[in-house]
Amino acid sequence: MIKKCLFPVAGYGTRFLPATKAMPKEMLPIVNKPLVQYGVEEALDAGLFEIAFVTGRGKRTINDHFDTSYELEHQIAGTDKEQYLHGIRSVIERAVFSTTRQSQMKGLGHAILTGQTLIGDEPFGVILADDLCFNPGGDSVMAQMVKIFRQVRCSIVAVQEVPPDQIHKFGVIAGEQVRDDLYRVTNMVEKPAADEAPSNLAIIGRYILTQDIFDYIKDTPPGKNGEIQITDALLRQAKAGCVMAYKFKGLRFDCGSIDGFVEATNYCYEHFYKKQAAR
Ligand code: G1P
What we know:
This protein has 279 residues and is an alpha/beta fold. It has helices at 35-45, 60-65, 70-76, 86-94, 108-114, 116-119, 141-152, 213-218, 230-240, 258-278, and strands at residues 4-8, 29-30, 33-34, 50-55, 96-101, 124-127, 131-134, 155-161, 171-179, 182-190, 201-209, 243-247, 251-254.
């Protein structure tokens, strides 16, 4: 039913300079796998196999990563090093990739609108690779959201409770609770001050959007920081129809910050890499 997933990957990653001077931040490795590959694996896990990248200048290696490297394949064919390519080979086999470029950085809403040409007229997922999510032993966050979408058939944002000193970093929702983990959104504010936040429920980088979002984005003027915010477009959609907020099950690491990146690295080293290496 939903088969496409959009990855806005045009950002500069200035918080990671100088590492990101000549390399996309999405290619920074969490242990031995680039950040963006975790996101693509999550999309595939949720059944979204058409992967659409909205890139920018200097992001070519993302496309190269999801393509066959003939020299490398040739070089290690028949050696035990081939095992290191199994993961990425399987991603490449299962997914179809397309790319478009955002020529100006005008915000997340604008990046998503740029992707319209790849998405067309159908509902789609959005994954912000900076937010690395795991749900050990259960459905991935995007897979959980696809299940909710089957029931509600409208746009969904993933939310988590965050403490007051963190709230200014997020889009924040207010809503009517319809069940333990689900709210019908009544208000949304992009990066409010703690004392102006409508709740402690912060949006994290997972969305399912219905295709009418593109029209709402086109009608959305620049908001916070002079950028076209997806949060503002979603509020319009919520007021005209329906947007749900889903309190997901699992863990989220903010890999857009150095602290979150290091925490994610330690987590993946302990939970995935060491176990894999022990086999
Ligand atoms: C974006 C969104 C924000 C959301 C956040 C999640 O902000 O604009 O609403 O809470 O992602 O990571 P960014 O972190 O890209 O500034």
